[in-house]
Specification:
With 199 residues, the protein is mostly helical. Among the domains are: 78 residues, NADH-ubiquinone/plastoquinone oxidoreductase chain 6, subunit NuoJ (Four Helix Bundle (Hemerythrin (Met), subunit A), Up-down Bundle), CATH 1.20.120; 35 residues. It has nine helices and no strands. It is elongated. The mean pLDDT is 81.
């Protein structure tokens, strides 16, 4: 009974915060609701017995991604009112794309069935933790997908830095090539000062 109440509590707060993420007018509030959704999703994973996945969700998504979103939204000088002006004309396209995605998910899960002759999933032995079992599967059978996903995230991070990088007038920039090309004659001058004539 207690587990059922906890599930409905976490699931309800997750759904409400997810709705608030897309309906809040202030982008900072949207990120805060996103953090709340991540915390409650971590609670759902704890109820499933996947403590490692719950901790990864909190550490990676809440501790890094959501906080990064929050700082980026707060630091960027953007006019969100101007961004919303032409947003309503894309609502029909968004509804159409969402409907197609929902129909595909219904078809996929509706036709889900175990392959003939396939063996059911073997339970995890008692002497192996779920973290160790997840690591064995992730770093053996799915190592290529794991490395490719890391490469995609690296490319996305570099792309985000390139897109947000802009030159500001009046800000001095370091020119490494010019600094390395300097000689001792250009960077230092020896003055012979006679006694009593120095500053």
């Amino acid at each position: 009974m207690l587990a059922s109440l906890a599930f409905y509590l976490f699931a309800g707060i997750t759904l409400l915060s997810a709705v608030m993420v897309i309906t809040a007018r202030n982008p900072v509030h949207s990120v805060l609701f996103l953090i709340l959704a991540f915390f409650n999703a971590a609670g759902l994973f704890v109820l499933l017995g996947a403590e490692f996945v719950a901790m990864i969700l909190v550490i990676v998504y809440v501790g890094a991604v959501a906080v990064l979103f929050l700082f980026v939204v707060m630091m960027l000088d953007m006019s969100f009112a101007d961004l919303r002006k032409g947003a309503m004309k894309y609502v029909p396209v968004g509804i159409l794309a969402g409907g197609i995605l929902l129909a595909e998910l219904i078809v996929v899960f509706g036709a889900w069935a175990m392959k003939d002759g396939a063996e059911p999933v073997q339970p995890i032995p008692a002497d192996i933790t779920n973290t160790e079992a997840l690591g064995r599967v992730l770093y053996t059978e799915y190592i290529l997908a794991f490395q490719v996903s890391g490469l995609i995230l690296l490319v996305a991070m570099i792309g985000a830095i390139v897109l947000t990088h802009r030159r500001r007038p009046g800000v001095q920039r370091q020119k490494v090539a010019d600094q390395q090309a300097r000689t001792t004659h250009e960077s230092m001058e020896v003055q012979k000062v006679t006694p009593g004539t120095g500053v």
